[in-house]
Amino acid sequence: PLFLKSLQSCSAVSCPSHCSICSSHCKAAPVAVEVHSELHAEVPSVTSSQFHSQDEEGNYAFGYKNINSFKVESGNALTGVSGSYSDGFRTYNYVADDSGFRHV
To answer: 80 with 95: CB under 8 angstroms?
Structure first.
């Protein structure tokens, strides 16, 4: 949009008598000034997700996934749990039951 702005060409301090810039003695001249106020910024798109489910029998499952890692796990208190996770470089599978925790 265009805005009209009164622009002082010279001042009494810098131009006590006559100013060669404004070609008359110190007067304000209207000037059209175009203002651009649009700002465009790239916003990085990062996708992540998570879930959780559980029933009355004590069975559960949960997991998450993002740009750096993921993890999924399911099981219950009677039979143990199994799952997998990633550190972004490698995927690890595991089981935790009566025999303890171990990678498989």
So the answer is: yes
Tokens of 80: 């143990």
Look up the pTM and report it: 0.55
Mention every residue, 6+ apart, whose C-beta is less than 8 A from residue 46.
66, 67
Residues 84, 69: contact at Cβ < 8 Å? Answer: no
> Is the distance from CB of 95 to CB of 102 less than 8 angstroms?
yes
What does the pLDDT look like over 60-76, one tens digit per residue?
Answer: 999 999 999 999 999 99
Distance CA 81, CA 96 (A): 5
**Token reading at 84:** 């997998």
Helix (H), strand (E) at residue 54: strand 49-54
